[in-house]
DNA sequence: AAGTGGTCTAGACCACTTC
DNA sequence: AAGTGGTCTAGACCACTTC
C-alpha cells in the first residue's frame, strides 16, 4: 500500500474514533509532512483522497477541516427504510456479490442464459464487430432469500468465453477476474426511477408499477475495452445509492 | 487555469474531435512531458482527471487508452426517454438552475417558505445548536413550464440570513455564493426510487404512485460546515443521473 | 531487456486567508 | 506580515507489461 493511502487511512481512523471531530482543523500540510516524514506531494494526495471520500474539506489559505462523517449519514439512512443495498463509495461498487458478501446469503434465479447476436444498439455500446456474439443473461439476485434486483447483462463472447451457469449463481465478476485474468477498471452508469412491469413485479415479489431504481451500466477493462452492458432494476424500497460530490 | 487542466482539456478535445479514437493509446507520460514542456507529475494529474471523467483508462506497464466516450452514452440516453435532467459529471452537479440554464426557462412554484426550528434529526445533520432556527422551503421547479422536481430544503438561519422569496424563484445557490460570499464545496447524497404521493403527483403533473427519483442531500461549505439539508423528488420519466465509477 | 505507468523526494513559487 | 493550501519542477526508484 502506497504511503499516501496509509496516511489517509491513519487520519481517517482519527476521524472515525473521534480524535478529530467535525469542525476540527487538521494539522497543516507542512506539519503532516513532518509528522509522517514524507514530502508535501504525498500528504496532499492523502488529503485529496479524504476529500473525495467525504471526510474533509480544504480551504486554501485557511486549513483542512473535518466534515460531518458519511458514516453518520449511512447509519441514519437505514432508519429511512432502505435497509438492503448500500452502494456508492467508489471502492465498494464492484458487483452485487462483493457489496453484499458480508450482509447475508446471496442467491440467484436465472431466467435467461444464452449466446446471441446482441441488438445493434447494444453491440455498438460494447464496441463489438458486426456479427459478433455475446453472452446474454437475466438474473434476479436475492439476499437471504429476499429478491433485490433483476439484472439483464450482455458480455462479448470472446472476452468472457467459458462462462457457465454456475458463475451466474455466484459472481460473474469473480469469474472474469480470477479465471479470465481480466482487470475491471471502471463503470459508466445512468440511473433512473422507473415503474415495475408485471413480469418484473412477479420476479421481485412486489406489485406492478412499484418504483424501481434502474442502473444502466457499461463496464470497462483497464485497457479501455468495454466488457459488459447491463440494465439492473433494483427494488426501490430495498435500495439506496450513496455518493459524495465535489464541486 | 492550472497547467494540468489545460493539458487535460487539450487531450479531451483530441478525443472529442476524433483525433484520438476509442481503443487508441495516448502518447506515453514521458512523451506528453516533452510535448507540453512540463514535468511528470503535471502530466499524471491531467491523465488522472481524464480517467475520473471517464475518457481514458491507464494500465501500468502498458499505456493509457481511450474509452468509448461518455458523450456517446449521453446522446443515446435521450432516446431512452429521459429528456430533461442531466446530472452527474462532477463539475455540473451544482443546483438545478445551473444545470438547466442552457436548457430552457426555469420557474418555481413556492408551496412553503418559513423560518422554523427544524426537526431534531435534520438539525443534527446540519450540525445546528439545539433551539436554532432554519429556513424551510418547498418548491417545484419547472423547465419551460414542465414540472421536473419538488425540493424540500432546510438551511440554518445564520448562514443564509437575508434569504427572500425572490431567491427561491431564481437560484438559492447564487444568493449564497454571490450575496453571502459562501463557497459551496461538496454534497453528500443518497438516491432512491420512491412512489409519488397524491399531493406530489398533483404538484408535478403526474399520477399518484408514479416513480420518483429521490435525492436526499447535505451540502457543505469549504470549511466543512453543512449549509443545507434537502430532499428532492424528481419526476422519473424526466430525470436521469450520470456517473463514472472507478474501481 | 526495454518500455510503461505509479509513487515519491526536496524543494520552489503562488493564491488566498487571517491577523 | 505571516500562515495556509495548490501547483509545479527535475529528477529518482519501483511494479508491471511486452517482447
From TrEMBL, chains A, B:
Residues 61-84 are annotated as: Disordered. The keyword Transcription regulation applies. InterPro entries: Bact_HTH_transcr_reg (IPR050679), Chorismate_lyase_/UTRA_dom_sf (IPR028978), Tscrpt_reg_HTH_GntR (IPR000524), UTRA (IPR011663), WH-like_DNA-bd_sf (IPR036388), WH_DNA-bd_sf (IPR036390). Residues 1-69 form the HTH gntR-type domain. Gene3D superfamilies: Chorismate lyase-like, Winged helix-like DNA-binding domain superfamily/Winged helix DNA-binding domain. SUPFAM superfamilies: Chorismate lyase-like (SSF64288), Winged helix' DNA-binding domain (SSF46785). It holds the Pfam family UTRA. Keywords: DNA-binding, Transcription, Transcription regulation. PROSITE patterns: HTH_GNTR. Coiled coil: none annotated. It comes from the Bacteria. PANTHER family: HTH GNTR-TYPE DOMAIN-CONTAINING PROTEIN, MANNOSYL-D-GLYCERATE TRANSPORT/METABOLISM SYSTEM REPRESSOR MNGR-RELATED. This is GntR family transcriptional regulator. It comes from Kribbibacterium absianum.
Amino acid at each position: 500500500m502506497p504511503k499516501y493511502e496509509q496516511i489517509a487511512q491513519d487520519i481517517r481512523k482519527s476521524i472515525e474514533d473521534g480524535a478529530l471531530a467535525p469542525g476540527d482543523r487538521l494539522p497543516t500540510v507542512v506539519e503532516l509532512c513532518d509528522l509522517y516524514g514524507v514530502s508535501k506531494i504525498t500528504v496532499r494526495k492523502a488529503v485529496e483522497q479524504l476529500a473525495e471520500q467525504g471526510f474533509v474539506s480544504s480551504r486554501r489559505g485557511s486549513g483542512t477541516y473535518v466534515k460531518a462523517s458519511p458514516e453518520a449519514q449511512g447509519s441514519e439512512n437505514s432508519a429511512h427504510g432502505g435497509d438492503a443495498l448500500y452502494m456508492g463509495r467508489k471502492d465498494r461498487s464492484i458487483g452485487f456479490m462483493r457489496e453484499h458478501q458480508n450482509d447475508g446469503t446471496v442467491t440467484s434465479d436465472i431466467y435467461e442464459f444464452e449466446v446471441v447476436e446482441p441488438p445493434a444498439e447494444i453491440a455498438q455500446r460494447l464496441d463489438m464487430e458486426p456479427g459478433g456474439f455475446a453472452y446474454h443473461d437475466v438474473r434476479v439476485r436475492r439476499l437471504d432469500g429476499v429478491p433485490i434486483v433483476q439484472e439483464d447483462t450482455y458480455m462479448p463472447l470472446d472476452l468472457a468465453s467459458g462462462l457457465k451457469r454456475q458463475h451466474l449463481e455466484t459472481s460473474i465478476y469473480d469469474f472474469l477476474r480470477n479465471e479470465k485474468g481480466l482487470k475491471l477498471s471502471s463503470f459508466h452508469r445512468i440511473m433512473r426511477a422507473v415503474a415495475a412491469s408485471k413480469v418484473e413485479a412477479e420476479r421481485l415479489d412486489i406489485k406492478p408499477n412499484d418504483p424501481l431504481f434502474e442502473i444502466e451500466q457499461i463496464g470497462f477493462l483497464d485497457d479501455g475495452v468495454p466488457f459488459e452492458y447491463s440494465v439492473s432494476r433494483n427494488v426501490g424500497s430495498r435500495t439506496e445509492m450513496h455518493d459524495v460530490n465535489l464541486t
